[in-house]
Amino acid sequence: MADLGMWRVDGDAPRRVGRSAVGLERRLEDWITNDSSLLADGLTLVGRQVRLEGGPLDLLAIDWQDRWVVIELKRERLYRDALAQAFDYASSIAAMDAADLEELLRPGLSTLGDAEELAGAVRRQLDGEDGGRDVAVLLAGVGVDAGLERIVAHLGGYGVPITIVSFEAFEPEGGPRLLIREVTEEQTGPPRRAHRPRLSIDEMRGLAAEKGVAEPFDRFLEMVEEADLKVQPYRRGVRIAPPTNRARYLMYARPEQGGIYLHAGPAQFAEFFPPLTEDEATAAIGSLESGAAYQGGAELDACLDQIEAFLRALPRPVEDGKPGLE
């Protein structure tokens, strides 16, 4: 993004928009705390300025793949030392005793949202680790050094999960500040832990049966398939993607003992199903935006009724911003 430019076009007279002098590292942390989708879909923030042995970690999250995500923010271009620092933090999180990690995060949860809900998310994450803790790294800054890109691509070949997010801020005269984002997705590679492979859909149904939620989990899968959305199994749950881009995220469901954990992204539904707006999607599934565990019985049935009504009313999907063809 070193040569990125922006112009405001009024008739035939384009006017260049200047870059903002905003201190991105300080402001980004606040912005991301308010809206974690600035970095990635499906992130639940559970830590801010977390004091670790190697120093303060900017942000810690849990993603829809049931991984801890170490987030390091820089106000300048990202260089190799940012990755080394993030790996230091990641190694601390990976090695920490579960009880110590839970205790470390608990005091700061109230600054990130509903403390009780977030404490439940942390507890579920720790309970599901099954002898192994998956930790991913996300770096965010203003531009990316070529040397860092080369290292990330190399490590991706070994399945090391690293995402890079690069921002530029622009400030039009008389208008609101604009934030431009570029994401370098994780490189694909062999799984890091052979003893924790992804489950198949049938195996995921078996897991739901073991936890006593076979019928509602099957119902969820059926309504998703009827809406022509794509189901992708992961280690402990299923990701739901739009039919036009299987790499993107719409929803996530994980069977738990006696219930189902559900998460959905209103902004992502609005992106792929216009003229549906984000406000409309939020009104329909807003309770799922931050993720929640629904216990069996009437509570879970009501939630599934809500999802089913929403999915049945979806417009036709679009691909690359263009309506799908009849």
Can you offer a commentary on this structure?
- The chain has 326 residues and is α+β, with helices and mostly antiparallel strands.
- The protein has ten helices and 15 strands.
- The strands form four sheets. The chain has a six-stranded mixed beta sheet, sandwiched between helices.
- A hairpin with a 2-residue loop joins strand 11 and strand 12.
- Helix 7 packs parallel to helix 10.
- The longest helix is centred in the first third of the chain and has 16 residues, at 80-95.
- The protein is globular, with a radius of gyration of 21 Å.
- Mean pLDDT is 84; it is low at 187-195 and 321-326.
Strand content is: 25-35%
Task: Give the overall shape, derived from the CA principal axes.
Answer: globular
The strands making up the biggest β-sheet line up spatially as: 3-4-5-6-7-8
Summarize the amount of helix as a percent range.
25-40%
C-alpha end-to-end distance: 37 Å
Structural class, please?
alpha+beta
Low-confidence stretches: 187-195, 321-326
Mean pLDDT: 84
